[in-house]
Structures are given as structure tokens and as C-alpha cells.
Amino acid sequence: MSFTTEVKSEIGQNRLNDCCTKAQLAALIQLCSTIVFNNKGMSLTIRIENATTAKRIWKLVKDSYDAEMELSVLKKMNLKKNNVYIIKIITKVDFILNDLNLLVANKLQEHPSYRLVRKECCARAYLAGAFLASGSANSPTKSNYHLEIATLDVNHAIYIQKLMKRFELPAKYIQRRNQHVVYLKASEKISDFLRCIGAYNAVMNFEDMRIQRDFRNSLTRLDNCEVANEMKTMRAGKKQLEDIALLEKYGKMTYLDKKLQEVAGLRKLLPEASLNDLCTEYEKQFGIAISKSGMKHRLAKISEIALKLSD
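^ that's the sequence the OP posted. Answer follows.
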């Protein structure tokens, strides 16, 4: 089961107040339905691929309006061969659409009336309905955090964007082919949206998976950092050994300051040691403490002398 399916399964079972029922049904109808006119009058055809959403629409219409409906299931012919659930509302269509304030000049409104989403609980229910109808969210196990709601109408997309900003959700908008998409990218804001629409279990799962993933990434970055430091130490040690070999080749080691000779001998003894390890070993051998910067300075002095010989 995908993360999107989990979210829809949860919010599709949440209980709603009477006022919130209308708000959620309005979102579902606006995003999933088509008005059909024939010699029998007006009907409403709703197409949806998610079973939970189809059940939700059926229940809301039946409980609120007791309208006559038909359900059919088609199987798509693409590779996934998903089911497509088609709900046809046959009776009371006029009454339903007018009661939800969705019908204007024999077509659906671009957005719901203000009275439907005036209350905060109703605005949340509307957003939950919009997600049920055409929303999706990437799994937090993926590196790309993304949650979106898609619509075919640009004005409806802008309306959803404004409604999300009412809850301090800084949604952005893009057009993707013939769809208008409102989306969130920040993981914290995706959590806030899921909490806003009542997907509390999904929030817990999302945060748990996100924390685990971020923790693994932190460990990986730490490991990579340690590996990089080790490689840097090995490259530096190799270069210092080459400089010491050059000084020995030209018989210059005996002319170096005693402190430089001590450090050179120590580097030959410990070719892959870090500066910290060299400082510790220097104090053991010679009974004198030396700082990391002091050790680095002496090695740099040896390299400087060797550089003059190579010119």
C-alpha cells in the first residue's frame, strides 16, 4: 500500500460534523464529477480510481441526500490496470448542487461558496476532500518530499492554494500539462497538512520514517566525512614521505634542525598517522608535548625545504 493510499484510507473513515460533510462533499464533487444533460434531465457522473474515495462519496451522498445512485467498475488498460469506480447520481442532482452552492449557469462553480468553508473545521474538511479526490504524497522514505493536489481549473487551484495558506501552509502552484497543481515540498509543512486534514496516524508514520531516514543520512554523511578525512590524511602523509625521501636522496637530512629530524623520523615510523596521533607519539618518544599546529608547522617546513631542492 502506498503512502498516499494510507492517508486516504485514514481520512476517508473520519467522522464529520453536518457542516463539514457538505464542505468535503463539495470538494469531492468539484474535483471528480461531470454534469450530464439528457432527455431524462440532469445527472452527475463521478470517476475515481481510489476505492476509499469512492466509498466516501457514496456514503456522503446517501446519508445526506438519499439520492438514487449507480456504481460501476472498469479496469484500465494500462500496465497497472487499476480499477476506475464510476458513481452516477441519478436523482436530486439539482437539489444537491444547489444545496452545496456549486451550480451556476448549468455548470460547476470554480470554487465553493464562502459559507461552506467559513468555519475552520469546514475548511479542513474541504482540504481533506480535495486530497481524497486528487491528492498524492511521496513516501517519506524517498529523498524528494512532495505533496500535491491537482485540478483541471486554474482558479480552483488558486483557491485551494489560498485555503492552505489560511493554515500557514505555504503551498506553491505550477501547471503540469493540462493540470493545475498546488504542492508542498518542506517535510514539516507536509506533516502540518496531514495533521490539518485529520490524518494523525499518517503524521506519526511520516515523522517516524522521516526521522529514521534523516538519521541514516546523517550517519552516512558522518561516515563520508570520516572517510574523506582519512583520505586527506593519507595523501598528506604520502606527500610528506616523498619530501623526506628527497631530502635523504640529496643528503640534507643531517643539516636539518634537530626538531625537524625528529618529526621526519616519526613520519617515516607512522606513515598514515594523523597529526593528533603524531603529537601523541612525539610526546611518548621525546617527553615533550607538541601542539597540532606545531606539528603541522614542522612538517610544512620540511616540505618547504624539499620544494627548493626540486626546483
